[in-house]
TrEMBL record:
Annotated signal sequence range: 1-20
Molecular function (Gene Ontology), one example: deaminase activity
Keywords: Signal
Protein name: UPF0076 protein
Cross-referenced CDD domains: YjgF_YER057c_UK114_family
Length: 151
């Protein structure tokens, strides 16, 4: 009798619908609101995708945009998109972006390119941007990693 009960219990558990994925962007009135990012993002359900730091290289590993920050930023964000899509998600599933730049004077350019990259999203992911003294190779001007949550 116990064996039959556990078989039924296991069958019931596998037949339950999976938890619905939700992504909630939090921008409390007690903090400043930015058009560039959300102050916090809460997710439930779904699978988490951790995207490694992307640099400005194409699929063959060749640097794109040597000395051209804007070209590198577009390539890096496209690489993020390709990685998320390969894991079954879309840009809309990105909940956190971390950016490492070698020159904070490029921040205005980066913000414009990132806003264009995220233009179809009503709420932007949580975000951190910092200046670093160097990346893995001298010709790389930025590196970006991301976290996405998909159903």
């Amino acid at each position: 009798m116990k064996k039959g009960f556990f078989c039924v219990l296991i069958a019931c558990l596998f037949s339950l619908p999976s938890l619905a994925q939700t992504i909630e962007h939090i921008n409390p009135a007690t903090l400043s609101k930015s058009p560039n990012y959300s102050q916090a993002v809460v997710t439930t359900g779904g699978r988490t995708i951790y995207v490694s730091g992307m640099i400005a290289v194409d699929k063959d590993g060749k640097l794109v945009g040597k000395g051209d920050f804007a070209a590198q930023a577009r390539q890096v964000l496209n690489n993020i998109k390709l990685a998320v899509e390969a894991a079954g998600g879309t840009i809309a599933n990105i909940v956190k972006i971390d950016t490492y730049m070698v020159n904070m004077n490029d921040l205005t350019t980066y913000r414009a390119i990132r806003l264009d990259f995220l233009k179809d999203l009503p709420n932007k992911p949580a975000s951190t941007t910092v200046q670093v003294t160097r990346l893995v190779q001298d010709d790389y001007l930025l590196e970006v990693d991301a976290i996405a949550v998909v159903q």
